[in-house]
């Protein structure tokens, strides 16, 4: 397999990470594109792709870090502080970015602490510390009202228990698009967890479109085929979790989605 083919296999998952980290499909996909462009212009960076998925994410991290550092330096030099009404992009500077990266790498992307450390240029023990910090931040989050759209009863129950264990409320569970419409007619959720293929042949994508036509709500899709929604060619979800999922992955995705929604919620 050629190097290009190997990179192409891993790109959908790098897009997933980049979107979750930046809070937007557009920004995340742009960072991925910048990563590839940087590697094409620098043989040293390109050579790191030979290390497989770890190497690809390591180059991405270099691009991400270089993009964040100048803005943070300028703000500190100017003595500018960040308040609760700052834009989501500026909120990135309010908490330790590395803690969020470490959490996403070890949960959503399922890297080991050793691999995450190599990606971020740290020691494995540092990763464990950062993950603990990120979990502490999650535990301080405000409660959300969550709608679960899932046609498998056991998975739906598991998600409901997980959501409640994080201190959030569940406004309802739906197995079909119609059921989701009925729940939203009674109460608008502040977060949606949705499967793609539903029991009656309806689509979780369509159910979410119905909800988004009524107002902006962060959505996390949970699917067995994430690569189908990570092409970078069309309008696609920002947050994706792969089935079968780990609870830690869902927890991290919920935290990240609510973090970027906090500004609009406050308003």
TrEMBL record:
<dbReference type="InterPro" id="IPR014605">
    <property type="entry name" value="Sig_resp-reg_PhyR"/>
</dbReference>
<feature type="modified residue" description="4-aspartylphosphate">
    <location>
        <position position="195"/>
    </location>
</feature>
<dbReference type="InterPro" id="IPR053866">
    <property type="entry name" value="PhyR_sigma2"/>
</dbReference>
<protein>
    <submittedName>
        <fullName>Response regulator</fullName>
    </submittedName>
</protein>
<dbReference type="Pfam" id="PF22029">
    <property type="entry name" value="PhyR_sigma2"/>
</dbReference>
<feature type="domain" description="Response regulatory">
    <location>
        <begin position="145"/>
        <end position="258"/>
    </location>
</feature>
<dbReference type="Pfam" id="PF22233">
    <property type="entry name" value="PhyR_sigma-like"/>
</dbReference>
<dbReference type="InterPro" id="IPR001789">
    <property type="entry name" value="Sig_transdc_resp-reg_receiver"/>
</dbReference>
<keyword id="KW-0597">Phosphoprotein</keyword>
<dbReference type="InterPro" id="IPR011006">
    <property type="entry name" value="CheY-like_superfamily"/>
</dbReference>
<dbReference type="InterPro" id="IPR050595">
    <property type="entry name" value="Bact_response_regulator"/>
</dbReference>
<dbReference type="InterPro" id="IPR053867">
    <property type="entry name" value="PhyR_sigma4"/>
</dbReference>
<dbReference type="GO" id="GO:0000160">
    <property type="term" value="P:phosphorelay signal transduction system"/>
</dbReference>
<dbReference type="Pfam" id="PF00072">
    <property type="entry name" value="Response_reg"/>
</dbReference>
């Amino acid at each position: 397999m050629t190097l290009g083919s190997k990179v192409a296999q891993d790109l959908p998952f790098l897009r997933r990470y980049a979107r979750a980290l930046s809070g937007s499909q557009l920004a995340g996909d742009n960072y991925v594109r910048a990563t590839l462009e940087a590697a094409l212009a620098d043989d040293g960076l390109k050579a790191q792709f030979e290390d497989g998925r770890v190497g690809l994410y390591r180059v991405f991290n270099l691009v991400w870090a270089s993009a964040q550092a100048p803005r943070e330096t300028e703000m500190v030099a100017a003595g500018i502080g960040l308040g609760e009404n700052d834009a989501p992009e500026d909120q990135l500077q309010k908490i330790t970015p590395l803690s969020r990266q470490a959490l996403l790498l070890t949960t959503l992307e399922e890297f080991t602490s050793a691999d995450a450390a190599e990606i971020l240029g740290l020691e494995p023990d540092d990763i464990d510390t950062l993950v603990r910090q990120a979990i502490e931040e999650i535990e301080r989050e405000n409660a959300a009202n969550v709608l679960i759209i899932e046609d498998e009863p056991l998975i739906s129950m598991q998600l409901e228990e997980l959501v409640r264990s994080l201190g959030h409320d569940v406004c309802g569970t739906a197995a079909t698009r119609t059921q989701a419409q009925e729940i939203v007619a009674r109460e608008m959720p502040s977060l949606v967890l949705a499967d793609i293929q539903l029991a009656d042949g309806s689509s979780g994508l369509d159910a979410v479109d119905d909800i988004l036509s009524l107002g902006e709500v962060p959505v996390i899709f949970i699917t067995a085929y994430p690569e189908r929604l990570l092409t970078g060619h069309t309008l696609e979800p920002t947050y994706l979790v792969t089935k079968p999922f780990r609870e830690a992955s869902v927890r991290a995705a919920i935290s990240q989605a609510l973090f970027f929604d906090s500004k609009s919620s406050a308003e």
